[in-house]
Amino acid sequence: MRLKDSVLEDNPHWYRDAVIYQVHIKAFADSNADGIGDFRGLTGKLDYLQQLGVTALWLLPFYPSPQRDDGYDIADYYDVNPNYNTLREFKQFLRAAHRRGLRVITELVLNHTSDQHPWFQRARKAKQGSAHRDFYVWSDTPEKYRDARIIFRDFESSNWTWDPVAKANYWHRFYSHQPDLNFDNPKVQAEMLKVIDFWMGLGVDGVRLDAVPYLYEREGTNCENLPETHTFLKKLRAHLDERFKNRLLLSEANQWPEDAAAYFGDGDESNMAFHFPLMPRMFMAIEMEDRFPIVDILDQTPAIPEGCQWAIFLRNHDELTLEMVTDEERDYMYRVYAADPRARINLGIRRRLAPLMKNNRRKIELMNVLLFSMPGTPIIYYGDEIGMGDNYYLGDRNGVRTPMQWNQDRNAGFSQSSPQRLFLPVIIEAEYHYESINVENQERNPSSLLWWMRRTIAMRKNFKAFGCGSLEILPSDNPKVLTFIRSHKDEKILVVINLSRFTQTVTVDLSRYAGMFPEEVFSRNRFPIIQESRYHFTMGQYDYFWFVLRSTEARREPCDEEYLKLKLAEGHPWWDVVNGKAGERFCSFVLPLYLQRVFWFCGKGRVISQITILESCQLKQNDQLFLLTFIKVAYTEWDPEVYLLPLAWISNERLQNVKERYPLEIITPLSLGDIDGFLCDAAYFEEFRELLMKMIHERTKVTGEPVLIWLA
Ligand code: NOJ
Ligand code: CA
Description:
- The chain is of the alpha/beta class.
- Among the domains are: 118-171, Oligo-1,6-glucosidase, Domain 2 (Oligo-1,6-glucosidase, domain 2, Alpha-Beta Complex); 464-549, Immunoglobulin-like; 558-703, no CATH class.
- 27% of the residues lie in helices and 21% in strands.
- An eight-stranded parallel beta barrel has the order 1-2-3-7-8-9-10-14. The chain has a six-stranded mixed β-sheet with strand order 22-26-27-25-24-23.
- Helix 9 crosses helix 11 and helix 13 packs parallel to helix 15.
- It is elongated, with a radius of gyration of 31 Å.
- Bound molecules: 1-deoxynojirimycin (NOJ) and calcium ion.
- Residues 69, 72, 109, 174, 210-211, 317-318 line the site of 1-deoxynojirimycin.
């Protein structure tokens, strides 16, 4: 990738404040009407993803494969499945994503290959004990490693399968057509390093390490998380860091927090790891209307090394896995979320977020708020941003892998092919029918879930604390309300989440923040100042708040003269006062006070949330220069207003004259290096006024927008 094409920041920790979108190439957009999504289709939808606000894309496996495990059964690590176009289109996609500042994470399926992979075909025919044979794990008896659990228990009854060609059993942790590679063989390790070099060389930003806990087998263990696996990961990380900059390793280890955190090593293994146990507990908490499951699992989550990050998610392409819960918890989850046994698969539930929430918009939002507030980088599963439905009558986990719903045209706008040719049928269940649940409908409606997601993602990105901050649970008197603080340096975000279907009140101990006030981030409404005593919130059903805690100090009204003095760097003309840093000061300190003093300002008594200079232009006549500025005053609870403010500059000497005739409040000391002068609202001064009026009459069409023009 040529650097000039990329707008990616040079930041080794980019993943810490990323928002990741998980996407299936085959399910997103079909460019050539063959019923299967492809890279050209995905590239065509990058605008949509950029508008959603996500910052990275995680692509499910797109390599040549017999597709018996949806591409996790790889037959060639170095190419693109011809159904999804070719390497050329992959490269074009990657470049287009980077140009938009979107990073790309791909899959590195280390643990196993397809039985169609040439390595396996070669191994089964190779001599016993030879290096080629030893690419995989063989045994004469299926009795070895009995302590390893069976993961795909609805499909497999053993981790061994007899191969009549090799005349031996081969080991597989997943489907029997996915033989496990043998990481004890240095040649296998070397091959994997070559694979990662290839994709990183093309410019991929990170890889998800599929099924990473299962790389090694040892008798007498459960064959998960073995020390040898960590040794290999350290080697992989060192290899990567030596050759590439700003790349990510993301471990898929469906494990308890301690074991999952081990995949960070001492900061020398993977940069990120999924937090599997947190996911079902968010679902439990909302159903039980109790914060306990979340608080408890966060409590069990160890601190992680500097620079590392959890990957958190609600749903993904697999079943909602219930491996990291107790038996009672699993029973509960099945009872409340999968009453129909057909919704269950292996140890989990094959449903999407919206149906799991019974299509309750408030619950869907609340779950996303939880996701965006928890410690880690959130991952959104494609289609969940519009509340897509599922179809668990399709086999395996296909019910959550159906075509993306773009509009109400044929095949939901996903493909021009015959509906019979689609890789999977689109959702036509009445409640989630693609004619109503689709991107186009939701783009048109600012109240849609899609717009809500866009706004919430955009808001989250304003605060470093969500991605990089610590989390402190705040004790409160109501277990149905989860309250915590995310903080990063001086930034403090107070999160209040009502998990209940009823209105609740909650009293929180915020005394540590006494003197500050909570400002709700979407409305910028200020709540009462926090006192030493307890703080009280009243919340509607499934309600949430994100507050930024502001110190009253920072919001102090600028009252002393110093605040009003503007200083421009030497060599700057006075009209630069509305630009850059000086402009920010002008808007945040000078103007709010100034506006309160002039009679024409309508917003006295309202809370100003922001003042911005929309436009400024210079007018010059008879050697007199004016600056016409259009200022927009936004309020916390009022529509914004636009004012025209004509500015002029008068020197120190002329001030004496002026002082006698005009009130001093309307001028602002301005210092340009060693020349002092005053910035004044030119409309107040007789000497400028006539000139100005004339010029304004000539030029009121400076912007196409309606403006309020207030002149004394
Ligand atoms: C984990 C993947 O998420 C899943 O889809 C796949 O079936 C297994 N690994 C086996 O590769
Ligand atoms: Ca296609």
